[in-house]
Amino acid sequence: MKDSEFISTFNASNIQNSSGRVAWQSPSNLAIVKYWGKYGQQLPRNPSISITLSEAFTQTSVEFFVDKYRSKLELEFYFEGKENESFKGRITKYLEGIESYFSFIPYSKLIINSDNSFPHSSGIASSASSMSALALCLCEIENNLENDKNGNEEFFLRKASYISRLGSGSACRSVYPYFASWGKIGNEDSSNLYASPVAEFHDVFKTLRNDILIVSAEEKSVSSTKGHQLMEENPYAKTRFEQANNRVFELKSILKEGNLSAFGEMLESEALTLHALMMASDPSYLLIEPKTIKVINEIRSFRKNENIPVFFSLDAGPNVHIISFEKDRAAIEGLIENLREFAIGGKILNDSIGFGAKKIE
Ligand code: PMV
Q1: Residue 212 is part of which domain span?
Q2: pLDDT, tens only, 344-358
Q3: 326 and 178, same structural domain?
Q4: Average confidence (pLDDT) over 188-211
Q5: 224 in ligand 1 pocket by Cβ < 6 Å?
Q6: Each residue's pLDDT tens digit, 2-38
Q7: How many Cα atoms occupy the beta-carbon half-sphere of 74 within 13 Å?
Q8: Of 178, 192, 271, 283, which has the fewest CB atoms closer than 10 Å, so is most exposed?
Q9: Nearest CA among 274, 348, 259 for reference residue 313
Q10: Over the chain, what is the mean pLDDT?
Q11: Does residue 333 form part of some domain?
């Protein structure tokens, strides 16, 4: 599919005073093969595959008032119940940038309410869940106004993924359950424009748990936009992009086979590779902290000693995602409790693999 398939062909100036309310819940996601490096309009330099989370999500509702006599978007934006001018500014720019995909936008007054299930400033990135929740709401408003234009579920989610990507690259993977891939993979039917669900994986992965250990809740010292940009001059970029291309193929087989040790090896290597790339960029960024390393070492020695598949992953920050499987829940309880001392305020967020985005009331 091309960009043009998502462009609105509807003449919104025909609409007379249409109004309503839509609401969606969309989760955060954790990449196994990481997306790091982008070009053009949030297009990835390499394909990625992520785990859709369950408990870390955003709930967004949009009240819409469309009137053909209105000439400009009017927006109210509430985050956690309070009007938020800074988010409003960013979202206004985003919405104005996607008017060609939703012709109703310039004729609309939108009242957006957004809440995260996880504490703000908990160090968990909210852009994937928030941008995908908003994109899903916009696609549904379009359906309401245009008699189910995106009625076909596959197209609906694909457009939502495409629109999410324009807000935050990794957000495009959040709309799908379990695992999602984004980016052109060899000759496969895949695209840089939107994500797709990973169709085949072993049942053991439906029991994947992710306990998120908050090492620091501080704002990242480098934005992901800057980090992606730095890949353009990174001396290891070419090798990295080749590696990621090979890894998405390998990971798909690993997921099918249910090979947990190969899964963990790739998960950990990808996390460390992401940070190695940041350390090797100019300027260089060191986003892990001493506590991050201590936790990683504890997880690795526990795994070796106990022979239990428990692994770590990292995003572009110091917090550690402890990945394990339901069958080992009791066996790793002690480990999680021991690691709590490294978490701010003893905070560990218990999450697991999830079912993707859903419509809410
Ligand atoms: O979606 P962005 O631009 O915030 O980039 C996210 C990049 C990583 O989280 C580090 C990796 C990924 O694939 O999600």
Answers
A1: 204-352
A2: 999 899 999 999 999
A3: no
A4: 96
A5: yes
A6: 888 888 877 777 777 899 999 999 999 999 999 999 9
A7: 11
A8: 283
A9: 274
A10: 94
A11: yes
The pLDDT score that the predictor gives to residue 5 is 87
The β-bridge relationship of strands 348-352 and 208-213 is antiparallel
* pLDDT at 4 (0 to 100): 82
Asked whether the beta carbons of 2 and 49 are under 8 A apart, the reply is no
Atom from ligand 1 closest to the CA of residue 225: 3
CA–CA separation, 49 and 210 (whole Å):
16
Q: Which of 199, 215, 237 is the last residue of a domain?
A: 199
Same domain, 41 and 183: yes
170 lines ligand 1 (CB under 6 A): yes
Domain count, the chain: 2
Contacts of residue 348, defined as CB under 8 A and 6 or more positions apart, other chains included, come to 211, 212, 213, 214, 322, 336, 339, 340
Ligand 1 centre distance from Cα of residue 31 (Å): 8
Nearest residue (CA) to ligand 1, atom 9: 315
Residue 341 is which amino acid?
E
We report the CATH number of the domain holding residue 78 as 3.30.230.10
Confirm whether pTM is higher than 0.85: yes
Residue 247 CB less than 6 A away from ligand 1: no
Give the ligand 1 atom nearest the CA of 38: 3
Check if 127 has its Cβ closer than 6 Å to any atom of ligand 1: yes
In which element (H, E) is residue 278 found? Answer: helix 260-279
Span from the CA of 361 to the centroid of ligand 1 (angstroms)? 29
Exposed / middle / buried, residue 282 (Cβ in 10 Å: 0-12, 13-18, 19+) = exposed
Per-residue CA distances from 23 to 134, 152, 234 (Å): 9, 19, 41
Q: Which amino acid is at 204?
A: V
Q: Is residue 186 scored above 90 in pLDDT?
A: no
